[in-house]
Specification:
heterodimer, A: 204 residues, mainly alpha, Four Helix Bundle (Hemerythrin (Met), subunit A), two-stranded antiparallel ribbon, 3% strand, elongated, B: 369 residues, alpha+beta, Immunoglobulin-like, 4-stranded mixed sheet, 9 helices, 9 strands, 14% strand
């Protein structure tokens, strides 16, 4: 009697190629679509707002931004410039990582972290200077919805930076995939913020 | 040369560009659609670039075996749809949200098991069998329940659209067709599978198409009027006969347990017979915030209804009408029950009473301690 059983060979081992970069790309696409749809609704609301005369009576304006609200443009423009620095530093981290230079990788990621803290600080300053409440009207509600979503993206990026920095300091010098993925997300939220900055803070 | 992911995202990007160009040409207000499509183009272009750089994130070239063993899967797409439902549900309705949760969990489970089965062994047919053995006992009942639900829903739409007499005929016709099809399957067990599948598919398509067409055309006029007027949602407590509320009235009671009082309209007088008291009463006591059953019996010639005045509702409007509840119009000798549930105690400013519609002077006080 034959008691032996036929054994099948094990299946192939799946080895992903640059999974962190792919994940970062997907996260960037999702963030872009989320913010894109919010800005689209923002612009739609603005275009449908009723007309009112300007304070000097010389022209008709869309009654979207309440007259008593002043946007602190210094802080918002500083945020835009800070994002440029963030992107440059993130790219420096990629450059250093490719050359197996953990010191400069860590330094660059540290500066990125610093700029992200500065961005959060600037956003909080904008909230404090504007001093508006969420329930005061549709503008206020949408303002907080858009900017708080942007703030959340910055916080996520900060978490990403902390992770990359921790691994870099821990000696993972060849962790290029993670650093590249981090840079990709930084670029993505910089572009997204540029759109928010233009629509919410410049065009208002 | 070009990976599947690249082709897909490139196609999405190109189509988005075409959509944007068409939007610019066709629409005046581009605020909503223009910005949304622009961001879609950006996201599509980003993912196209990533698909090129990472070759769809797989090791297709490095490990030929992997691409041989893996099959194309629908579940990532379904997972994405579930996630969208989840997000939409947060701002629309709980049904969409919970639908998203169900879709997401189902798709993730399917996806994980498919991924596991593709690496179960080096034999693709064994792997497919492993997947089937694990998932088919769950998939088939769920799919059957879903299919049945769709057919029932579609048929309900049809029945709400066609008029009552046509509905009856339709029921007979569809029932006959189902019977004929069932008989055919029974007497010809060796019938080709394709013929059986075609009969089932035709039937399902017919019902679903009919359901969709009916849902688009809307419910029949009398149902629309009923929904607008809401005569199934409130009682009409006047002395006159109500067209809807008094339809098919019940005048005999089968269940007489837990009755607090029997209110009788006798010889033009309204009296209350309360258990434990020999004489008829002109007031009854009802516990607060408790369901209390009373029976109304009409012992006077004619049709009458018993109405309970529940005072003014909690509103700032001083001119608001009193809340009332009532029985249907009851013929002589008939009786009907009424359940009272009064959440607030009675007082000088807030009194409750039972009376006969059209004869408000015939009343019984309702005391709520």
């Amino acid at each position: 009697m034959n008691t032996s059983a036929t054994a099948l060979g094990s299946g192939p081992k799946v080895v992903m190629r640059r999974p962190t970069l792919v994940l970062s790309g997907l996260l960037s696409a999702v963030s872009a679509m989320l913010m894109g749809s919010m800005l689209a609704i923002w612009l739609d609301f603005r275009s449908k707002a009723p007309l009112r005369e300007s304070s000097d009576g010389s022209m008709m304006l869309r009654d979207w931004l309440p007259e008593n609200i002043k946007i602190p443009e210094v802080a918002t423009n500083t945020m835009m410039m800070t994002f440029v620095i963030t992107c440059v530093m993130a790219q420096w981290a990629v450059y250093s990582s490719r050359r197996n230079d953990p010191k400069h990788t860590s330094l660059a990621l540290g500066v990125v972290l610093l700029t992200e803290i500065a961005l959060i600080n600037a956003q909080v300053a904008v909230y404090l200077q504007m001093d508006i409440a969420v329930r005061d009207g549709s503008y206020m509600m949408m303002f907080y919805a858009v900017t708080a979503t942007m703030l959340t993206m910055i916080v996520i990026c900060m978490g990403f930076t902390l992770l990359a920095l921790f691994r870099s300091i821990g000696g993972r010098a060849g962790d290029r995939d993670l650093v590249s993925a981090h840079a990709l997300y930084c670029y993505a939220i910089a572009v997204i913020f540029a759109a928010v900055w233009f629509v919410v803070y410049v065009q208002k | 040369m070009f990976s599947t992911g690249f082709k897909y995202f490139f196609g999405v990007t190109v189509l988005s560009v075409v959509a944007l160009v068409m939007s610019v040409a066709l629409f005046k207000n581009l605020a909503l659609i223009g910005v949304a499509i622009t961001f879609l183009i950006a996201a599509g272009a980003l993912l196209t670039g990533l698909a090129i750089i990472t070759s769809d994130g797989t090791t297709r070239d490095a490990n030929v075996q992997t691409s041989d063993m893996t099959t194309q899967s629908l579940w990532p797409l379904v997972t994405g749809i579930g996630t969208v439902f989840l997000a939409l549900g947060l701002v629309t309705s709980s049904i969409v949200f919970f639908g998203g949760v169900v879709v997401l969990l189902a798709a993730l489970s399917e996806w994980m098991i498919q991924a596991w089965s593709e690496r179960a062994s080096s034999d693709a047919s064994h792997n497919a069998e492993a997947r089937k053995r694990l998932l088919n006992p769950i998939e088939f009942p769920v799919l059957a329940a879903l299919g049945l639900g769709v057919v029932i829903f579609a048929f309900s739409r049809i029945m709400l659209t066609v008029d009552k007499s046509t509905g009856a005929v339709l029921f007979i016709v569809v029932g006959t067709l189902v019977l004929v099809a069932g008989t055919l399957f029974a007497i010809k067990p060796n019938m080709k599978r394709s013929v059986g599948a075609a009969i089932c598919a035709l039937g399902a398509i017919g019902i679903i198409a009919g359901g969709v067409a009916s849902a688009v055309s809307g419910e029949r006029e009398e149902l629309v009027l009923a929904a607008e007027e809401g005569h199934f949602t409130h009682k009409e407590c006047g002395p006159e006969e109500s067209k809807y509320f008094d339809k098919l009235k019940e005048e005999t009671l089968s269940l007489r347990s837990a009755v607090s009082a029997t209110i009788i309209y006798q010889d033009g007088e309204l009296i209350a017979n309360i258990q434990g008291l020999n004489k008829p009463q002109k007031s009854i006591t009802v516990p607060r915030s408790n369901a209390t059953n009373i029976i109304f019996r009409n012992a006077t010639e004619g049709e009458f209804r018993l109405v309970v005045d529940l005072g003014k509702p909690k509103t700032e409007d001083k001119d608001s009408h009193h809340d009332v509840d009532c029985t249907q119009l009851i013929e002589t000798g008939g009786e009907q029950s009424l359940t009272l549930n009064i959440p607030k105690s009675s007082s000088a400013d807030n009194s409750y009473k039972l009376f006969i519609a059209g004869a408000e002077d015939k009343q019984i006080e309702v005391v709520v301690p």
